[in-house]
């Protein structure tokens, strides 16, 4: 008796410009090895007129896959819908989803720090629920903090959450460990990179603490909003989003320092993983850093300069921290992801 | 302090911010707009709208920031909010019309990210949808004094499409002559220009952006809105303001767009022809009942600004309201323009002196007028003269608009003496709700006073036209019951005897004289009078018993060379008339005041008219006298004629002949008392 390969269907709007598309691109290669894979693209109102993310284009091309745009029905043993927030500017999800198990990967936090809703979660999940016929409907958070916001939302909205179960294990981002060697002589060269959104930046006073005049270099990539406000600090080298190659940016720094607006918290923190993979010491706010379990140094902006000074003075600390980062990334490997995904493909192993 | 922001930085949003700031200010809030968020180049009307509310960023100390149009918040606005680095106690509120719950959440999150705090979000679509769908401006009701004019004003708001019907303007003209109502037309700037280009130009038309809606609403009791659909934001704001004051709003739109909103409007005929009858026979008799119903109307209560301010979490207003009456009683505030001389200020002072004792007079005047007014016992608040230092040619007038608005209170009357009604005066009248009188002497040169100048007559309650002494000089510029012609406004001659003045002058000059010649040719603003004064001085120099006195206003500049003539003296004084009355011969320009003072003092004169194209028609005025044998007219370039005229007057008895003619002349009664009476009556 031949064992049939499971049918795996991805449902995405492939025009997400940031971490969602990058995460999906990384996991498609794993999923392709675990079943018959179809990738369905949904034209959402959110990204009308935008292009497919290049990172996804490249991943699909490498796998010899094509996007199936706006299919009326999508079926599979496992249907994975990434980032339900792409439905937030519309009232209906067009395709019918038929699956043994439907997993909705919750890339966006359901709530912002302080308690504001991250987006209209109820409306987005209701669209998916109304469009789907599935044996199990699972919400899969991407990190412990993301899980907290999802669980809190479910608890606060029991009626809206009733169709959904919470995955037992995080649907984490696959992170390549990178092979860049740590510099043996770290210097006070600091940088950060992100999309240009105002939410990605902390208050100016915190930026001043993180990128002081005393530093040898302060490189800010994705600084469109700072550049729009005028030449704020002569000791900052500002570049717009995609203004320089990411490799060039990493050549310019030894420490990556990343804080956001206090009203935002990264749901996973791919940007920090990129810094680790590039062989840098990465410093972020303690909550965001906790995802990487020691691989990222948690520090407030007023603590950053001390942390950097210590790692410059004792260069072995720098090398140890880069190693800790690599070890942290190993927990987000493709093989671990495959194991996690296999759980979802196993009929009897439902979510916790 | 409340900082008013908008989601977008476009023209429409700026207009909405300015109007909303005005609404907040009317409720006692110290509402401001960060000047760094306003484009440097603003439309003329917008500069005036903005001036009261602009604040330097360094001076901002907000208790709250209100972001209107929050359904779409652009990066510029977010960056501004972030750059404020607000202290934690500052409240942020977003007011918008959110198409979905997500749209509301997006606004909430963006404001939170920019300011680091949780904003209050008010969905206007749910809380106070107003009369114009999609309006960025929160269309809220501001309570105000109920309209109570004896003859109510009906305003018609319409778009340019109404003018496509050839019957529109004749119908409007007929409505403008109804005794039961005054008419006011409110339309687009383009449609206003179109009307002003026709023979129906006398219609009182306002462009919808000419004045803020709240100011426009002050003079209106009834508003009829015509057109195919819902009105624009400004007309909607005007209608809302009027409803809140107990006025009547007639929905004459084809689709009943206003009535469909649930607002307490009256559904009226959708055709212009049906409106006069409907307004006069259906609405006017029920005005009191309409005003009473407005007081308890749920739609108005729902749209009340204090209610929405409370929802937005605003603190209590800084003041009890901007319309609190001043501690002083009503007054007549005279505003003379700064002409080429001091005639306007002098005439205004004469009228002010004639006011009843229980009606105080105040003055706002340009610096050139202040010494004269002060000398006559009037304190005056200074206005700002144009300096040429600013790119905008009306920068001084924007400041004057602020000064005048602050100087006026409801119950006051602004009395303007001048030819061109500055925007500052126009706006101050309407925005303050003060009554207004325009003192406008005649004898304009053809084309000198344009139709656009007269357009602003529409905000004056009355126009007082001081007459000319000779009737052929009196012409009508505009017509109507608001035009009041009075006799010449002329300074009465003092009681001092000419002989005493001559003795005092001789003593002051240190030289006895037999012949006194006085020159009053003006301050040299309109034209250089050096040649004429040199000619007069040269003609009088060989006469040992003669003294030549050149009268100069304080501040006037005269060439130093004149002082070198042996018997010529320059006397700086504001009291020229007693000197002139003491003279054997007066050589004078023919401005309104000097001319009439000399004629009424029956002083023989040689008139040298100013003939600059922007002056009144002094030559006609001078010739009216010389044609009657009362004076001699010499044009400025007729210097030889001038020498001979002096000789004829002093040596050949020509001056005596003119004095006899003057003595026999019958003159119209002066109009100063009548002008003062008309102003006083308007205060009642």
Describe the secondary structure blueprint for this structure.
The complex is a heterodimer of chains A (352) and B (684).
Chain A: E1 7-12, H1 19-32, E2 36-41, H2 54-63, E3 67-69, E4 73-82, E5 96-106, H3 121-131, E6 132-141, H4 144-156, H5 158-161, E7 165-166, E8 189-193, H6 204-210, E9 217-221, H7 224-228, E10 237-239, H8 246-251, E11 255-258, H9 270-277, E12 281-284, H10 286-289, E13 297-298, H11 304-313, H12 315-330, H13 334-345
Parallel strand pairs in A: 1-2, 1-4, 2-3, 4-5, 5-6, 6-7, 8-9, 8-11, 9-10, 11-12, 12-13
Helix pairs in contact in A: 1-2, 1-13, 11-12
Chain B: E1 2-6, H1 11-26, E2 31-34, H2 44-50, E3 54-55, E4 64-68, H3 75-84, E5 91-96, H4 101-115, E6 120-123, H5 124-127, E7 153-157, H6 168-176, E8 182-187, H7 189-196, E9 205-207, H8 213-218, E10 222-227, H9 233-244, E11 248-253, E12 266-267, H10 275-283, H11 287-295, H12 298-302, H13 305-311, E13 332-336, H14 343-353, E14 361-365, H15 370-375, E15 380-382, H16 395-407, E16 413-417, H17 423-432, E17 435-439, H18 451-454, E18 462-466, E19 483-486, H19 498-509, E20 515-520, H20 530-540, E21 546-552, E22 568-572, H21 576-581, E23 585-588, H22 592-600, E24 605-607, H23 618-626, E25 631-633, H24 639-651, H25 654-664, H26 672-683
Parallel strand pairs in B: 1-2, 1-4, 2-3, 4-5, 5-6, 7-8, 7-10, 8-9, 10-11, 11-12, 13-14, 13-16, 14-15, 16-17, 17-18, 18-19, 20-21, 20-23, 21-22, 23-24, 24-25
């Amino acid at each position: 008796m031949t064992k049939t390969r499971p049918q795996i269907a991805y449902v995405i709007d492939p025009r997400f410009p940031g971490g969602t598309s990058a995460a999906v691109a990384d996991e498609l290669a794993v999923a392709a090895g675990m079943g018959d894979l179809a990738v369905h693209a949904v034209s959402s109102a959110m990204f009308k007129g935008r292009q497919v993310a290049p990172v996804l284009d490249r991943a699909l091309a490498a796998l010899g896959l094509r996007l199936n745009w706006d299919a009326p029905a999508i079926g599979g043993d496992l249907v994975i819908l990434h980032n339900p927030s792409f439905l937030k500017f519309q009232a209906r999800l067009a395709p019918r989803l038929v699956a043994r198990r439907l997993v909705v990967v919750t890339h966006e936090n359901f709530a912002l720090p302080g308690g504001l809703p991250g987006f209209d979660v109820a409306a987005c999940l209701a669209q998916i629920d109304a469009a789907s016929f599935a044996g199990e409907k699972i919400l899969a958070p991407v990190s412990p903090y993301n899980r907290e916001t999802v669980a809190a939302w479910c608890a606060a909205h029991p009626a809206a959450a009733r169709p959904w179960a919470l995955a037992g294990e995080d649907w984490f981002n696959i992170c390549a460990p990178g092979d860049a060697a740590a510099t043996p002589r770290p210097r006070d060269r600091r940088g950060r990179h992100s999309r240009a959104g105002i939410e990605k930046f902390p208050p100016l006073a915190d930026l001043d603490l993180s990128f002081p005049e005393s530093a040898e270099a302060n490189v800010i990539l994705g600084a469109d909003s700072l550049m729009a406000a005028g030449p704020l600090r002569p000791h900052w080298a500002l570049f717009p989003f995609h203004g320089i190659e990411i490799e060039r940016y990493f050549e310019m720094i030894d420490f990556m320092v990343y804080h956001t607006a206090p009203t935002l918290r990264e749901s996973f923190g791919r940007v920090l993983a990129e810094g680790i993979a590039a062989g840098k010491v990465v410093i972020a706010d303690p909550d965001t850093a906790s995802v990487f379990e020691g691989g990222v140094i948690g520090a407030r902006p007023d603590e950053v300069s001390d942390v950097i000074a210590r790692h410059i003075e004792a260069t072995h600390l720098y090398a140890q921290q880069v190693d800790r980062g690599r070890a942290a990334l190993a927990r987000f490997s493709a093989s671990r992801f495959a194991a996690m995904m296999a759980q979802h493909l196993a009929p009897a192993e439902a979510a916790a | 302090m409340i900082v008013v922001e908008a989601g977008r930085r476009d023209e429409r949003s700026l207009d909405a911010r300015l109007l909303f700031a005005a609404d907040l200010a009317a409720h006692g809030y110290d509402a401001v707009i960060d000047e760094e968020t306003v484009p440097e180049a603003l439309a003329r009307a917008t500069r005036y709208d903005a001036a009261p509310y602009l604040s330097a960023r360094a001076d901002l100390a907000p208790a709250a920031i209100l972001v209107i149009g929050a359904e779409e918040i652009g990066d510029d606005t977010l960056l501004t909010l972030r750059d404020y680095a607000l202290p934690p106690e500052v409240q942020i509120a977003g007011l918008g019309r959110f198409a979905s719950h997500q749209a509301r959440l997006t606004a909430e999150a963006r404001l939170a990210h920019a300011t680091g705090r949780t904003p209050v979000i008010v969905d206007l679509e749910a809380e106070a949808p107003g009369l114009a769908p999609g309006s960025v401006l929160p269309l809220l009701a501001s309570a105000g004094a109920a309209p109570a004019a004896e003859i109510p004003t009906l305003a018609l708001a319409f778009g340019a499409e109404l003018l496509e019907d050839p019957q529109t303007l004749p119908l409007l003209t007929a409505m403008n002559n109804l005794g039961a109502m005054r008419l006011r037309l409110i339309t687009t700037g383009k449609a206003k220009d179109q009307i002003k280009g026709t023979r129906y130009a006398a219609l009182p038309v306002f462009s919808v952006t000419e004045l803020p809606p709240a100011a426009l609403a002050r003079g209106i009791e009834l508003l009829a809105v015509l057109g195919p659909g819902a009105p624009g934001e400004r007309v909607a704001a005007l209608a809302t303001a009027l409803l809140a004051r107990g006025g009547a709003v007639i929905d004459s739109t084809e689709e009943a767009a206003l009535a469909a909103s649930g607002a307490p409007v009256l559904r009226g005929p959708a055709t212009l022809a049906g409106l006069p009858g409907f307004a006069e026979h259906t609405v006017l008799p029920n005005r009191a009942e309409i005003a009473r119903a407005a007081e308890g109307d749920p739609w108005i209560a729902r749209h009340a600004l204090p209610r929405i301010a409370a929802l937005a979490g605003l603190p209590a207003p800084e003041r009890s309201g901007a319309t609190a009456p001043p501690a002083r009683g009503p007054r007549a505030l005279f505003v003379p323009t700064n002409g080429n001389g001091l005639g306007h200020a002098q005439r205004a002072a004469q009228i002010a002196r004639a006011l009843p004792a229980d009606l105080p007079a105040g003055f706002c005047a340009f610096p050139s007028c202040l010494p004269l007014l002060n000398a006559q016992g009037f304190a005056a608040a200074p206005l700002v003269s144009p300096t040429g230092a600013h790119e905008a040619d009306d920068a001084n007038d924007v400041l004057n608009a602020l000064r005048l608005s602050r100087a006026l209170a409801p119950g006051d009357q602004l009395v303007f003496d001048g030819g061109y009604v500055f925007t500052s005066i126009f706006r101050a009248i309407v925005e303050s709700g003060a009554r207004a009188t325009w003192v406008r002497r005649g004898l304009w040169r053809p084309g000198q006073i344009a139709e656009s100048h007269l357009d602003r007559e529409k905000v004056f309650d009355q126009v007082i036209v001081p007459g000319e002494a000779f009737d052929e000089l009196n012409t009508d510029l505009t017509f109507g019951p608001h035009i009041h012609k009075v006799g010449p406004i002329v300074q009465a001659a003092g009681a001092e005897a000419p002989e005493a003045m001559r003795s005092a002058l001789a003593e002051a000059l240190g030289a006895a004289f037999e012949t006194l010649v006085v020159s009053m040719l003006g301050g040299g603003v309109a034209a250089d009078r050096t040649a004429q004064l040199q000619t007069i001085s040269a003609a009088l120099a060989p006469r040992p018993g003669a003294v030549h006195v050149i009268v100069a206003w304080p501040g006037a500049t005269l060439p130093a060379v004149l002082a070198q003539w042996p018997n010529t003296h320059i006397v700086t004084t504001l009291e020229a008339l007693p000197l002139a009355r003491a003279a054997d011969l007066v050589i004078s320009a023919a401005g309104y005041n000097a001319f009439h003072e000399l004629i009424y003092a029956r002083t023989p004169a040689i008139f040298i008219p100013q003939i600059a194209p922007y002056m009144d028609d002094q030559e006609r005025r001078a010739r009216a006298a010389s044609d009657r044998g009362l004076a001699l007219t010499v044009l400025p370039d007729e210097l030889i004629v001038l020498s001979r005229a002096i000789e004829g007057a002093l040596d050949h008895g020509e001056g005596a002949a003119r004095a006899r003619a003057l003595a026999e002349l019958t003159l119209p009664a002066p109009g100063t008392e009548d002008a003062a009476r008309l102003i006083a009556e308007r205060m009642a």
